[in-house]
Amino acid sequence: MAIFSVYVVNKAGGLIYQLDSYAPRAEAEKTFSYPLDLLLKLHDERVLVAFGQRDGIRVGHAVLAINGMDVNGRYTADGKEVLEYLGNPANYPVSIRFGRPRLTSNEKLMLASMFHS
Fold first, then answer.
1. What is the pTM of this model?
2. Cα 68 to chain centroid, rounded
3. pLDDT tens track of the chain, all 117 residues?
4. Which domains does the chain have, with CATH numbers?
5. Coiled-coil annotation: which residues (predicted)?
C-alpha cells in the first residue's frame, strides 16, 4: 500500500500541514489539424477536455503545453488566451500536451476539511 498524501488537520478543521508525493502521471501529446476534434472548456481557470477522449487524452485532462510552450491556467507562456489561440485556423497544425491537473491550494483545503467531523 502506498501513501500519496498527508494532511494534518487541527480540531477546528483547519489545515495545518499538507504533503503530496506527486508523481506526474502519463501525459499525452498529439498534433492536431483544424478543426480541433476535442471540446475544450474553461473550468476553474484551467482549460479542460470536456468531450471527445481519444489516444490517451481523457475527459478532465488539462492543456499543459501548446507547441512546447507551457500553459499557465488559461494563458500561454507568452500571454495569449488558449481558447482564442486554438480557435484561429492560422495557428494549425498545433501540438498540444494534455495531462492531469495538479490540485490548487483551495482544492487541498476543501479535501482536508472533508476529514474533519
1. 0.69
2. 16
3. 677 778 888 887 777 888 877 666 668 888 888 888 888 888 888 888 888 888 878 888 888 888 888 888 888 888 888 888 888 899 889 998 888 877 777 777 777 777 766
4. 1-23+104-116 (no CATH), 25-98 (2.30.42.40)
5. none
